[in-house]
Write a structure and sequence with these properties.
CATH class of the largest domain: Mainly Alpha
CATH topology of the largest domain: MetI-like fold
Number of strands: 0
CATH architecture of the largest domain: Orthogonal Bundle
Radius of gyration: 27 Å
Shape: globular
Number of helices: 13
Number of domains: 2
Strand content: under 5%
Mean pLDDT: 84
Distance between the termini: 70 Å
CATH superfamily of the largest domain: MetI-like
Length: 315
């Protein structure tokens, strides 16, 4: 019996067979795509695990020579000197001071920008302003570094004549300008995601647009706004070139923004440029410093996750 006769005798079976074959091909393609996507996701996880493993391995070699107590409590960081000291506190103080200055600039300006773009700007203005604001993200950080050194610091010296050429105030302000797009964009997206019914209910109660934005929309988007702040903090803590160029790279234990200082990332760049031979205790110190930076970033992200979870449950 030929195929034509089989189809004529049982046409329903032929239709079902074609449908099953089509479904099989479709599901096979979906499984392949899912497998590729899973590999992409696992590659990011594997990269993170590899970075942490390298930091732990190299740091373990460093701490065989340097006491972890001295590392965490010594107030001097002089790994390039003959009388070497490996106290991480001067680098941590420089990192926190510049990051704090950056947040003092970026958080209010970024939040105000997000409220304006979300609640007050027209569609045309939003479509123009938001891409222009996000263009700051594409500017190389080395440009921001020289902007801080050659423009912002001389302007600050007119206000504070005693301000030295290398300080933490100028780089901190420029870092704040640099991370405004991160905070503004993420916070604006969170506020735009608030249902329009909440705004309409507020207007129905007689609230103004400003009252609605501040007392209704912003609290409802708190989890997303906190996520924007955590992103900005992590970006500030991990910034390298701005502080490496304009802060002076002198590891001083000080929280005075008028002084020069070094940050963890600036020190890593300094050593990675070849000042110390590979495998030496000074070279291994960059992995210990990198581990501290990774732990700080992890702590900030965990703190942000807990805060987002708390406010998400509240609203």
């Amino acid at each position: 019996m030929n195929t034509a006769t089989q189809v004529l005798n049982n046409p329903l079976e032929h239709v079902i067979s074609d449908r099953l074959a089509k479904n099989f091909r479709r599901h096979f393609k979906e499984r392949v795509i899912e497998f590729i996507l899973m590999l992409a996701a696992l590659s990011a996880v594997a990269t993170t695990i590899a970075i942490v493993a390298i930091l732990l391995y190299e740091s373990a070699s460093f701490f065989k020579t340097v006491s972890i107590v001295d590392f965490l409590t010594d107030t001097q960081w002089t790994p390039l000197f003959e009388d070497a000291h490996y106290g991480i506190l001067p680098l941590v103080s420089g990192t926190f001071t510049t990051s704090a200055i950056a947040l003092l600039v970026a958080v209010p300006l970024g939040t105000i920008g997000a409220i304006y773009l979300s609640e007050f700007a027209s569609h045309k203005v939003r479509e123009i302003c938001k891409p222009l604001l996000e263009l700051l993200v594409g500017v190389p950080t080395v440009v921001f570094g020289y902007f801080a050194l050659l423009f912002v610091t001389p302007m600050l010296q007119k206000i504070f004549p005693e301000l030295p050429g290398f300080n933490m105030l100028g780089p901190g302000i420029v870092m704040g300008i640099m991370i405004i797009p991160y905070i503004s964009s993420v916070a604006e997206d969170a506020m735009r995601a608030v249902p329009m019914s909440m705004r309409e209910g507020s207007y129905a109660m007689g609230a103004t647009r400003f009252q609605t934005a501040v007392r209704v929309v912003a609290p409802a988007a708190t989890s997303g706004i906190i996520a924007a702040y955590i992103l900005g903090i992590s970006r500030a803590v991990g910034e390298t070139m701005v502080v490496a160029i304009a802060a002076g790279q002198q590891p001083n234990l000080t929280f005075n923004p008028m002084d020069g200082a070094a940050t963890i990332t600036a020190y890593i760049v300094q050593v990675a440029m070849g000042d110390l031979p590979h495998g030496s205790i000074g070279y291994q110190s960059i992995f210990a410093a990198g581990l501290v930076l990774a732990l700080i970033t992890l702590f900030l992200n965990l703190l942000g996750h807990l805060a987002r979870k708390k406010y998400r449950e509240a609203y």
